[in-house]
Amino acid sequence: MKRHILLIEDEVNIAKFVELELKHENFEVTVSHDGREGMDHALINNYDLLLVDLMLPSLNGLEICRRVRKQKNTPIILITARDAIIDRVSGLEAGADDYVVKPFAIEELLARIRAVLRRVDGEGNLNSKIVMSDLSVDKHAHQVFYQDNEIELTKTEYDMLVLLMENKNKVLSRDVILESVWGYDAETETNVVDVYIRHLRRKLLGASHLIETVRGVGYVMRL
Fold first, then answer.
1. Rounded to 5 degrees, what angle do the CA atoms 143, 59, 79 make?
2. What is the side-by-side strand order in the sheet with 149-151?
3. Distance CA 7, CA 43 (A)
4. Phi/psi of residue 57, each to 5°?
5. What is the pTM of this model?
6. N or C terminus of the chain with fewer C-beta within 10 Å?
7. Of the segments 24-33, 73-82, 119-128, 189-198, which one has the largest average pLDDT value?
8. Is residue 153 within 8 Å of 200, Cβ to Cβ?
9. Exposed (0-12), middle (13-18) or buried (19+): which is 202, by Cβ within 10 Å?
10. Which tens digits make up the pLDDT trace of 118-133?
11. Helix, strand counts (H, E) of the chain
């Protein structure tokens, strides 16, 4: 069965180019040139992945991410002309799984799409639960609990937590976390990992101490 991608991009030439390339790679593609219309498509229909431009008429890409995340876990890749770290972090915090900076090579975009879809497929094959002290993850239900209270995490925060818990007592470098969670190597952007660790610790409440910082290396989860 073909994977169905929703492309929300107001630049018609770029949208047409990406649409043709995706179809050439055997994806089914729906295109919207308006933010609000695209968000309606994303909420009403089921897609395997959303490609969302950051700057859109009617509704910007960040707001689309936020609203979709309240209802669905559909993978989202942001397409943005903004290359600043704060803009990238804002996109990830809004619920995006990845981002591509314009101008981009179509090979890079396709690689990012495949990486995100591989992570989603991997989650579908996961079984059992992970438990550390009063913190538990139900990988089938995609839920996290602390002392029987559910903790709401973004997709990226959840992926990072599962990675750390599945590698408990093993120190993971920032590069390894970046590659495993975001699906690509970006040495100059490892500070994004630190930002997400801070968010994760804050949300884990009494279990935040389980995530330890190993100075000069990365992070580890220990009982």
1. 70
2. 129-132, 135-138, 143-146, 149-151
3. 14
4. -70, 150
5. 0.58
6. N
7. 24-33
8. yes
9. exposed
10. 877 766 554 568 889 8
11. 8, 12
